[in-house]
Amino acid sequence: MPAPETTVAPMISLRNVQKRFGDHFALHDISLDIGAGEFFSLLGPSGCGKTTLLRILAGIEQPTSGSLSIGGDAMAGVPANRRPTNMVFQSYAIFPHLNVEENIGYGLRNMSIPRTEAAARVAEALALVKLDGLGRRNADQLSGGQRQRVALARALVCRPKVLLLDEPLSALDKNLRQDMQSELRALQRAVGITFVFVTHDQEEALAMSDRIAVMNGGRIEQVGQPAEIYDQPATAFVASFVGTLNRLTARVTERGAGHLTVAGVPLHLPAAASGPGAEVTLAVRPETLRLGRDPECDLVLPARVVEVQFLGSIVRTRVDVGGDVISLDSFNRPGSPVPAIGSSAEVSLRSKDVIVTQAP
Amino acid sequence: MAGYGLLSPALLIMVAMLALPIAALVLLSFWRQSGYTLDTTLTGANYARIFGLSDSPTVWMGIPFYLAYPVPVILLIKSLMMSLTATVTVIPLAYPMAYFIAFRVRSGKSIWILLLTIPFWTSYLLRVFAWKIMLGYTGAINSGLMALGIIHHPLDALLYNSGAVTVVLAHSWVSFAVLPIYVSLEKIDRSLLEAASDLGDTRWQRFRRITLPLSMPGVIAAALMVFIPTVGDYVTPTLIGGSGGSMVGNLIQDLFMKRNNAPMGAAVAIVMMAVIALIALLFVWLTGYHKMRARRR
Ligand SMILES: Nc1ncnc2c1ncn2[C@@H]1O[C@H](COP(=O)(O)OP(=O)(O)O)[C@@H](O)[C@H]1O
Ligand SMILES: [Mg+2]
User: Angle CA(A85)–CA(A38)–CA(A128) in degrees, nearest 5?
Assistant: First the structure.
């Protein structure tokens, strides 16, 4: 799948941005374009530099080197208070001495907006985040979900070109988080503002984003649409960080031609080109594997059932294939038998679903 | 409210240590001195004398006082004004110091706090004496100005007036006032300040709208810490104030020691304490009231 071409000038453009704290590089050479109106996610493990990148966009932190422009304007020397961005902080940063209305209207006081219009915009923002009637509530009388909504409304009411969100859902419990995911996505479509959304949760990023940048150790490993990231991970890190991944050890039988054997079964993968006798690691997603012999699949591997997990609508079976334990998911259909632990089975897959990574 | 919480252990100890002496003082104020002996029949005569009216007013600072014995009331009002001036001087001096340590010092904050306590390594008396040497007729300031040829005769307005007392009181208490303000500034979540900037505040707007309101509990605590003990101070007015700068503490000391009228001294002391307590409560109520109203709205 080709990367989407941004035909118009990008909303955010980062060029060779580096950030150093002492002698520790939090960001190495980040170059990135984010289009207007995109829901763009920065995905990566804790400490990979997501927050630092967001703070550089907001102007709270200055890059050590490199340049950045937002909406076509260079941001060098532009302080946070004059940038066309607003941020939803990870801690929400709700002002404790102000009530909900005063919190939401905080930024409007700095624009030359008539009092009545400002009040109308605050009311509109309250309705947008479904907090109608709570305007007079004090900040310390709010639940976590409500605080998150206040933070969101406070940023959106300023109508920024770019909304920056630092793990806004990570403090919420699971059900609320899932509701907020779709709500936030719908909100972004409604307001049409560019969202830069930071998360360490790959499911969240896949579910919500137009495009994702996967980060690791201060670098961007891959940028792409969710399906691209998931189906064609560019690096071993992306492959393992996004989604569940099974690893299979294969042995190369013919040098340069991509002929391999897995658990004694031959297969042809042109992407794997190493010397004969060498071992390569193949990666397969749980959902591309079928238990039993499937006529649509060109590869059938012998396996032994090790563990069966019943997950409700899905049954996750763990099987041993030539010494590697892998997981595969199947729908729980009434009538289909649950495999017995210790029984031998067959696993089918299509060789085009195998991901060859240059992993060690 | 958390700011007052910081004071409560100190408050508890003070109540325990002062309750008995104060009870004794209250009792004493209802007795009378007759010659060299104490008349222990309970009477309100001392209070009646302090507040006793008269037809011919005593005018002080242009205000007529229709009191038969106006000295305690006038001195008390004068002391309150001087303490208030000292407090109002101390807070804007202490606030920048506290702000600097809380927000500008990156490492070694405890060293800066330690530096603040250096004045307390010598006694209060010595520090006040040092001021006397500076402000005196042949003191450092006068001889310095004369050596520079700016003045030809020593200025005698530097010492022995209420202005000098106020300056010395402010200097003595400014380091104390830094600490509660520092604590309240240190507690402010830095992401609140970042959020304020993100929402378009300049540094000054951010200070006015976020930092200052959130540090108010510390400012209130600091103001009380300076105001309450300075009203009754008598060391500084004795050494620096002379006759022009004497305060109510001097009168109390005078009544106890020189004039041999301990019950009257006790009554003046009790009136002073009651007035300070009232003002402090009013102050806390006024400043706290604002916050309460914001919460209830
Ligand atoms: N102000 C700072 N001083 C020193 N190191 C920092 C600072 N902020 C972040 N870092 C370091 O930079 C790296 C990236 O941090 P961060 O951007 O917060 O990661 P993430 O948000 O992805 O978890 C981490 O190793 C962190 O310790
Ligand atoms: Mg972070």
Answer: 65
